[in-house]
Every structure is written in structure tokens, then in C-alpha cells.
Amino acid sequence: MTEEFHRIRRLPPYVFASVNQAKAAARARGEDIIDLGMGNPDSPTPPHIVEKLVETVANPRTHRYSMSKGIPGLRKAVSAYYERRFHVGLDPEKEIVVTLGSKEGLANLASAITTPGDTILVPNPSYPIHQFGFIIAGGSVRSVPATPDDDMLRALYRAVKHSVPKPTVLIVNFPSNPTAYLADSAFYKELVTFARRENIWILSDLAYAEIYFGEKIPSSILEIPGARDIAVEFTSMSKTYSMAGWRVGFAAGNERLIAALTRIKSYLDYGAFTPIQVAATAALNGPQDCVAELRALYKERRDVLIRGLHAAGWEVPSPEGSMFAWAPIPEPFREMGSVAFARLLLEEAGVAVAPGLGFGEYGDSHVRIGLVENTHRLRQALRSIRSFLSAHGVSSPSLSSDKPV
After folding, report:
1. Measuring CA to CA, which residue among 185, 186, 170 is closest to residue 126?
2. What is the mean pLDDT of residues 298-320?
3. Is the peptide bond prior to 46 cis by the omega test (within 30 degrees of 0)?
4. In the structure, how many helices (H) and strands (E) does the chain have?
5. Tell me, what's the pLDDT at 25?
6. Does residue 302 contact residue 371 with C-beta atoms inside 8 Å?
7. Which end of the chain has fewer CB atoms < 10 Å from its terminal CB, N or C?
8. pLDDT for residue 22
9. Strands 351-352 vs 34-35: parallel, antiparallel or unpaired
10. CA–CA separation, 330 vs 102, rounded Å?
């Protein structure tokens, strides 16, 4: 009885634990830590959504068990969102299921469709549940490049040719967490053609669909003709409406995959609390000014962060979407890796970031910086980072910090 349980043995120690423990210890000592490590929205949920929750929760009938697949009104609202945003028509009965956030949906679908030993194709680096949902289910993960370009496509062709058994599922996530890469419809078309030819399911994580900063607007893979033959897409209310703690999202697309997820969920949960689902319906059907305002807020923060990092001598690409910057570790620290660098930044600058190793071994040369503090706190963090880098020999450029991103 001393051996560790089989599925737990397949999960490595939590990479973020070291930084989280150091962060907690610093705060216990009374230090002011600016936490840019966790993707936890700091903006309040828009008032009209909260009001709908309060109104609904006052009705005691809504305190009963809900529906595991989601209340009909919310599934219809999701269908209307896809029609409005992507010009994709979906059957709310057969092609949509409500989930307890996209993370739960991905993990449960992995459990539903994975046979032990299946080969799963996952970008590296990527959000941890993309690989570990399948590892927990008994699958074997093969890494592919995270960039939406020919490098990923070539890796997919090699994987089909050389993997035993042949891959059954491909995960994609654009706008990406942590890398902030965006994919366009031309890339999705290549993926759909590949997956249909090779009989591979595609699971697309579109949680950051509404957080973008330029003319390149995120696409849905379901826009591509034939995608619903092989693809299902997950998204969430968490970032779009600052509803992270509400735990409500949805899956949409291929009828067979949706049926599998619906069936396994029927054994595991009764769905989100009904008032939360009603409020989510109001969010999707109601005014969308709040979405544009949040997008503008994240863009302002992005611009402050990237300008400030550049002024400090830290060259970080400006993200086109998501709520993160994917930052290469500055040269003097590169050999130490992302965990040690994140701990050093925390200890000497009082700024917490997420070590890239937590998103896969190919992320160890980067850290993820979240746009989850207001501009005043970001500027405070940037002053500390600038002093930290200067103390370690990283010089600031002569360019003005007001240079446009």
C-alpha cells in the first residue's frame, strides 16, 4: 500500500509550486508582491450579469439540480453567439454542451475518447490541461511545435508517419496560452484538410477568442467547411466577461464528440448552478460593450507593459491576443532556466511571473507575464524590473519609453 497511485505517478510535480511557495512566504513577511503569474482577471464581472444572477438566485426553484448538458436557453445563446461572431450555425441540442469552464470540458472529453496508449498530438508549450487531460486518461502525448505555421504542419505529417499507434487527436489553441500566437482561417483550413484525410479528431481551445488587439481577429476552426466532421471547440466565459470564478464555458462542434462529452458528464455532474447559467445567457444575449471595454483595457495594459520592458532592456514581443506576454528570458539569466529566473525576479524585484517550464519543456526559455494588474501596478512592477535588470548588467536602450508598441 506504499506505492503511489498509477494515474498520480504520471503527473510530475507542479512546476508552479516553487514560485507560489516563495510568493506566499514573501507575502507572509509583509512584502508587496505584484503578481503577474496567474491568468486571473482582476476586473469585476459586468453589473448586468451580476444583477441577473442575483435576480435568479432569489427564486428557490433555481436551487434544484440543473441540467448536466446545460439549460436550453444557454445552449441557444451559444448557438446565437457562433452565428453572430463566426457565421456558423450550430444545433443547440446536438452540437453544443455547457461545461464547468473549458478546462473541465477538455479533461472530460479526453476521458471519454481516449483508449490507454493512444497517441495525442499537443503543441509544446501549451496550457497544461491540453496534455495532462489525456495523460490522466491513459494517453501518450507527442509534442508538436506551437507556432501556427509550416513547422507545425510538417511535424504533424511526421507524427502520422512515425507514431505507433497512429495519432487519434490533435489539440490546438489560438490565441494561445501561453505564447499568445494567433492562427488565421488559412492555417485552420490546412489543419482540417490534414485531420479529415488522416481521421484525426481536432480539439480547439478558443478561450481567448475575444481578447485581441489588432486587425487580426481570431477565427473559429468551425468556420472551415468540413470542420464539424472532425472538430470540437471549447471556449469560456472566464476571460471574455471576467467570470473566471463562475466556472462556465461550453463545447461546440462535431455531434459525435459532443454526444461523448454529454454522456460522460451525465455521470459526473448536474451542470453549473442554474442562476450562473441564466446569468451566462444574459451575458451572451445582452449588450457587448463590456467585451469591447475589457479588450481595450487589456490592450492599454499590453502597451504599458511592452513599452516598459523594452525601455528596461528586455525585448519582449508584443502579443496580438490573449492576456499574456510570452517573454524570452534575458540573456544574462538564460542558462538558469525559467523556474530559477522566476524565483530570482520574485526575490529581487517583488514581481511574480509564471515559469515557462510549466507549459512544457520547450517553454523553459521563457516566462509568461499576465496583464492582470492595473496600469499603476504595472508601472510599479516595471520600475522594479528595470532596477533588477540594471543590477545584473542589462542596460536600457536610449530610446524613449513612450515609443509606440
Report:
1. 170
2. 96
3. no
4. 13, 12
5. 87
6. yes
7. N
8. 81
9. parallel
10. 33
Q: For 101-147, give the DSSP string.
A: HHHHHHHHHHHHHPPTT-EEEEEES--HHHHHHHHHTT-EEEEEESS
Class for domain 6-44+290-391, per CATH? alpha beta
Cis peptide leading into residue 92 (ω within 30°):
no
Q: How confident is the model at residue 171 (pLDDT cuts 50, 70, 90)?
A: very high
Q: What percent of the chain has pLDDT over 70?
A: 97
Does residue 152 sit in helix, strand or coil? Answer: helix
C-alpha count within 13 angstroms, C-beta hemisphere, residue 345:
34
Q: How far apart are CA 190 and CA 157, in angstroms?
A: 12
- Order of strands, edge to edge, in the sheet holding 354-355? 324-328, 366-370, 354-355
Cell numbers for 236, please give them.
469560456
In a 3-state reduction of DSSP, which class is residue 263?
helix
Sign of CA dihedral 136, 237, 269, 90: negative
Q: Is 175 helix (H, G, I), strand (E, B) or coil?
A: coil
The distance between the two most distant Cα atoms of the chain, rounded to a whole number of Å, is 65
Note the pLDDT tens digit of each residue in 216-263: 999 999 999 999 999 999 999 999 999 999 999 999 999 999 999 999
CATH topology of domain 49-285: Aspartate Aminotransferase; domain 2 (3.40.640)
Give strand pairing partners of 145.
Answer: 124
At 212, is the pLDDT very low, low, confident or very high (cuts 50, 70, 90)?
Answer: very high
Task: Say if residue 219 is exposed, middle or buried (CB neighbours under 10 Å; 0-12, 13-18, 19+).
Answer: buried
pLDDT at 2: 60
Domain map (residue ranges) of the chain:
6-44+290-391, 49-285
Q: How far is CA 74 from CA 71, 83, 290, in A?
A: 6, 14, 19
Q: Which residues contact 86 (CB under 8 A, 6 or more apart)?
A: 219, 220, 222, 223
Q: What percent of the chain has pLDDT over 90?
A: 86
Q: Report the alpha-carbon distance of residue 342 to residue 340 in Å, rounded.
A: 5
pLDDT value for 4: 74
Q: How far is CA 297 from the centre of its chain?
A: 18
In tens, the pLDDT along 363-378 reads 999 999 999 999 999 9
CA distance 379 to 367: 19
What contacts 59, CB < 8 A, 6 or more positions away?
Answer: none
**Which amino acid, residue 353?**
V
pLDDT at 404: 45
Sign of CA dihedral 333, 335, 338, 343: negative
